[in-house]
Amino acid sequence: EKLELNKIGIEFKGVQDRNFLLNLYLLDFDREQAFPIQVPKKDIRESITFGGTQFTILSGNERTIKLKLIDSHEMP
Fold this sequence. Notes:
Blueprint: E1 2-5, E2 8-16, E3 19-26, E4 34-40, E5 48-50, E6 53-60, E7 65-72
Antiparallel strand pairs: 1-2, 2-3, 3-4, 5-6, 6-7
């Protein structure tokens, strides 16, 4: 399931080799084009920013991930 916030979409794909696997979608660019992102599990609770949306990963496992929205603003 894809979560859409402002101009980005985030889709959780699971965990592989100690990394959270995410697909990032730039909604103004192409709603169907996924950009794969890997976030190391060791970086949990560190700030991540995509397209003006800042969040942290609070927890995650093979099936789910819990995100906390920190800040969100429109990009020019």
